[in-house]
Amino acid sequence: MTYADLAARALQDPEGFWAEAAKGIDWIHPFDQVLDRTRTPAARWFVGGKLNTCANALDRHVEAGFGDQLALVHDSAMTNTVTRYTYAELTDAVARCAGALANLGVQKGDRVVIYLPMIPEAAIAMLACARLGAVHSVVFGGFASAQLAARIDDAQPTLVITASCGLEPKRVVPYKPLLDEALRIASHIVPRCLVVQRPQLSADLAPGRDQDWATLMAEAKPHPPVPVEATDPLYILYTSGTTGQPKGVVRDNGGHAVALHWSMANLYGTQPGDVYWAASDVGWVVGHSYIVYAPLLQRCTTVMYEGKPVGTPDPGAFWRVVADHQVNVLFTAPTAFRAIKGQDPTGQYLKSYDRSSLRTLFLAGERCDPPTLRWAEEHLGVPVIDHWWQTETGWPIVTNPRGIEPLPVKPGSASVPVPGWDLQVLDDGGEPVARGDIGNLVVKLPLPPGALPTLWGADERFIQAYLSRFPGFYTTADAGYIDEDGYVFVMARTDDVINVAGHRLSTGALEEVVASHADVAECAVIGVTDGTKGQLPWGLIVVNQGCTTPHEQVISDTVAAVRSTIGPVAAFKHAIVVPRLPKTRSGKILRGTLRQIADGQTWSMPATIEDPDVMHEVARLIEGLR
Ligand code: COA
Ligand code: AMP
Questions:
Q1: Is 0.90 surpassed by the pTM of this model?
Q2: How far apart are CA 573 and CA 58, in angstroms?
């Protein structure tokens, strides 16, 4: 069937289409209804069905005779070690981990926060939660204690799993003290913590509360998979919104398993037995979907990499991993390629490795700029596929569906809507725009399986954030256009979210931290274009009248505060003190113009400006920072 036929079928008969796809999953009890459109706040998939996601990812492959096939290859460029798990070994480790969690009192429906670096225990812990029907919430290691505390307070976990440390190129990051500080700040009392002790640094364990991973794993008995409803939550993943309060994206079990399993063959063109490497982090949605769940659901070998694209030890790191593990499909963020290209512009490192196993490169997380796309195509000699999705959607909205029908690549476009996603472009009044015109990218409801059914404990916020702006549609908060051939071009966010090295950050959250400094009267944080990281946050600070603290001090204080409150991943290093913030007559900060100035683009004075002199003065100061 062609892409066009399949896409049409999925929209005309979603129930029939997804019931067919659901045959790729083993159900303990079949679903009574494919799609219940009456549910609030959103329609629900596979109602009445019972399954276990972990059993679908692991046990069924062992039972089918594939126990000796490699399931997980962990490659650490930080410790120069490789650890391999067959499906039988991974099933055993996950079952014993589930037993250990159950011994600690974790039950179906309980939340477990996982704050771990890129070590096999992260995937094992996630799958063990899925096995028990417990809801995991992974927090990215680059977030600071306050961020971890906010997520602990929202998810109210019975257990937090952490490690003694993470390994960054120039430093060992002690995770346990970060967790201890988060537990001190949080209002919710976490009764138990489980700690993976790494040889590079040992963590102190609080008697009575903290347990040692290795000891508990050695004592634990394997726990069988617990049946859960298709609509029960599998995980919560917090992501940045426009305010400092992160949004807890909920993923269910049934829709997620069906959509992810279907996506592997149809979108990524993989078959069971292929080697799939998503060079991301388990703290992000890419890591959840394409390091852990999707490759295992399809019985691929998944590669988990602890390291960077450059500096660990050189820009050949990715090609070494591809060659060593015979990777067939690689998925990463354009920022990683910009970093590699910056250090290896002529592709010398590429030539030292056998990359013949590699069939396709997928890029996502931010728009892929055409020069990066061309460089990757030219040097790798394989199709380079930009594809667009979000934490909320869980899997791609727009891609070049390699397993259905490989379509020509158009640089700058993520290609075409995935079957099941009714993507439309609306103007601010909610009317469809003409082909080629830019507007709000929205998805007509119901969303396909795998997309978020709500935010954790916050149905009303879910409706407000995603469903109320354009009734009957999910708003992606991205702007873009669809061309005459149906190709989608995603151009920019329509809210205050910025994208720093493929990491999604809220300027509102950064502003809250900067504004909390005693000498700061008000501030604005804007995302400024950066050659490697895509965007970097820059702060514009207005100090209180009569402030006697030197401006340099205020700036270094706020930079330090963002690092310790949000985390190093925010990469907030640039700020200036300005006399006033340029605003409209109704008091709105003119962020768009400030961004144009900071990006070195030509700009014009907005008609709505309150005081043009302020804009000229701020422009002069920003140009000094560039
Ligand atoms: N734990 C603790 N600290 C972390 C961390 C973690 N898991 N991940 C990143 N950090 C720290 C880094 O050490 C760095 O700290 P520094 O300011 O002391 O140098 C800071 O956070 C920024 O990290 P990062 O964004 O990784 O930047 P970098 O300069 O170290 O590397 C790239 C730049 C482009 C190589 C890197 O960002 C990259 O590989 N990005 C890929 C993004 C990605 O996978 N996105 C997921 C969506 S697909
Ligand atoms: P996250 O939820 O962290 O995955 O970030 C999702 C956001 O990243 C999207 O809403 C887009 O703004 C941006 N994004 C992700 N992939 C792409 C892409 N291929 N092209 C353009 N923007 C992208």
A1: yes
A2: 44
